[in-house]
């Protein structure tokens, strides 16, 4: 059905071209508006970016200026000589500008954000540095107060300066009031040191993000740390010297030679009479400077408890030194506390020195023992047992060890009277003065070995016959092992350990054998000496024809073997699988003794080196001999002959026995 409508005419009639024109005109009017809007948006975005950029630059500049101005104050804060650090100079401040604002003139936001982050991190770090510097300044003030606090003798009124204090060994004990003031000043300084150490840890934590970018700030930290270390060293030196003087005033140290009222230790191995003779000979020939003799102004040492006032002074000084060590080594004492808590949770008495022997190696020897109590004894041991002296004979290493053991046993009770000092320092439930004394004496023995005796043994090894020098090295090691076993009770080892003679790893870790195992050259010489001696011993057994003849079977019925000559039947070699020849038993004995010695070494590395360096060649030598015999028998084509049957049977029995015993060896 057609409507008869002319669309084109209809459109034209309605003014179609005018509509198109109108639409086009409207579009033309909108395009400038859109462009204008886009331009406005772009302009706004640029303005916002510039605003952000400016804000970032401003913040970065403020941070940088704050840091620079703070450095100017912090770098030379309260320097003892009144001078300031070179960091606060124009050149130093320019370095800070360069380090903290590498992108200060950058036009992109990411780089400025990085710069702001760096400056913000540096600002936080600097705040920690300022807190640290304030703590160190307070520490220095307290140390000055402590330095001006002297130990006045009883009846004295004035407090003389440290340099004017009379020789303590010739003076009376300090008055209670003076001792109280001294202890209070010392603990205030120690408290200041603890606060400084904590502030240092905080500063180190916040300094990590700027470690590479701002080394100038780390120079500030180094300056503050140096001042803190100086104060710590001054505290340590003063307390150690005062304790050493007080010990000297109490007639410590005792002489090395046995005193008439203190007989030698019961059960001490070795020739004690020979030791006394050697000690007396050395004393008579060494002259006035002999280290074994007490000083002329010394009274005979009768113990610390004989003078209560002097004992109170020792307690106070040990408490101060113990507090200082805890402030300097907080992590070690925290680990010790954790170990003892675990021991207590396991049902052990944490107050017992042997409850957790591993705790002995978690904390260094207390300074009261290692820096004051034992050094004068160590000096005497060093001089008395030098290889050039009569008592220092290298073929009598037991003399040194016996003397140390006697000094520990005779005076451990006297040293135990100093325990209240550790209790005052809060260490009473964690450390024991008697054990610390034994540990320090062991370290002193180690030092004598390292500095005097082992170098002399090394020189003999290089210059003289290895057989003689090797035996001296082996004797030194075996006496050292015996020394450790006998010293173990004084180190707090439990009775179960003493009964088994198997020392726990923590006790072995600080063994005197470390004087050998810690030095690669000494360790190589010891292994060579053991290998030389044991190979010679094994070779002597292998060269003995009787050592290859197994004992006859216990059961007479086993003597009858089918297809064997009468000689083989009578010797029973073909049936001796579990009745080996003496050569196999000798090798097992040698290796077993070697394993026992290796268990006394301080660590697994030394144990492996000893077994590989000595046990390996021993087994190789035996294997070579067994293979040689079997190859000769095989080449003769008469293994079952009268000449070879017993020898082949002995080799097979020896191999089976060695395989069984070595695989079962713990």
**Oligomeric state of shown chains:** single chain
**Could you name the ranges where pLDDT drops below 50 across 5 or more consecutive residues?**
1-16, 76-86, 155-170, 261-297, 348-355, 556-574
| Derived structural class | mainly alpha
Total beta-strand segments: 0
Helix content: 55-70%
Mean model confidence by pLDDT: 77
Order of helices and strands: HHHHHHHHHHHHHHHHHHHHHHH
Query: Major sheet: size, sense and barrel closure?
Result: none
Beginning-to-end CA distance, first to last residue: 115 Å
Q: Assess the beta-strand content as a share of residues.
A: under 5%
Shape: flat
What can you tell me about this protein's structure?
It is a single chain. With 666 residues, the chain is mainly α. The chain has 23 helices and no strands. The chain has helices spanning 7-13, 16-74, 90-100, 109-147, 176-206, 215-249, 272-286, 308-328, 330-345, 367-373, 375-384, 398-416, 419-424, 433-463, 466-487, 495-500, 505-508, 514-517, 520-542, 566-571, 582-598, 604-635, 645-664. α6 crosses α10 (367-373) and α11 (375-384) packs parallel to α14 (433-463). The longest helix has 59 residues, at 16-74. The chain starts with 6 loop residues before the first helix and ends with a helix. 37% of the residues are buried.
